[in-house]
Amino acid sequence: MSKGQVIVNTGDGKGKSTAAFGTIARALGHDKKVCVIQFIKSPGDYGEVLFFKKQKNIEWHITGKGFTWNSEDLAKDKEIAQEGFELAKEKILSDEYDLILLDEITYLTNYNFIEIHDLIKAIANRPENLDIILTGRNADSRLVEIADTVTEMLKIKHAFDNGIKAKKGIEL
Fold first, then answer.
1. What is the spatial distance between Cα 22 and Cα 2, in angstroms, rounded to a whole number?
2. What is the reported pTM?
3. Which residue of 11, 61, 105, 135 has the fewest C-beta atoms within 10 A of its own C-beta?
C-alpha cells in the first residue's frame, strides 16, 4: 500500500475544483472510495454533484450555505464552517476512504473560521494511505509546506470579468 498524498490546488484562476473532480473520476475508475466535502457552496443542482452522486463508492457533503466575502452574517458562516470541519475531521479519521476532497477549505482558514494548525493537525493524523485534496484561493504557506503536490491556478483572463455569467456545464 502506498503512502497517501496531500494535494493543494490554489490560486486565483479557474479550475481548482475541476482538477480535483478529474482526480476523483480517476479514483472511482479504480474502485477507490471517495468522500467530498464542499465548504462554501449551498445545496443546488451543480453539474459535479448531479454526475458524481450517480456513481458508486462516493459520498458527497455540501456543508455551506453559499458564503461569500459579501456575507451579512459572518458569525453564522463561521458556525456552519466549523460544523463542516468537524465532519471533515470525522471522515478523515474514519479510515473508510481512499481519497477525500476538502473543496474550498482555504476560505475557512483565510477568514479565520478555523485555525490553520487545526487543519494541519487533521491532515497529519490521517490514515497513512489516505489521499487528501484541498482547494481554494490563497492557500496558507504552512499548508503549502506540508503538501506533497501544490498547483497554483493563475488567472490570465476570465469571462466573468467581461460580464459573462456562470454557465451550466462550465461553472455550474
1. 20
2. 0.93
3. 61
Residue type, 3: K
CB 172, CB 48: distance < 8 Å: no
Q: Which grid coordinates belong to 99?
A: 481519497
Of 49, 102, 107, give the one whose Cα is nearest residue 78.
107
Report the alpha-carbon angle 106-166-7, nearest 5: 30
- Give the domain ranges of the chain: 6-162
Structural fold of domain 6-162: Rossmann fold (3.40.50)
E strand map for the chain: 6-10, 34-38, 58-62, 99-103, 131-135, 149-152
Could you give the angle at the alpha carbon of 100 between the alpha carbons of 99 and 106, nearest 5°?
140
CA distance to 19, 30, 134, per residue, from 124 (Å): 23, 25, 14
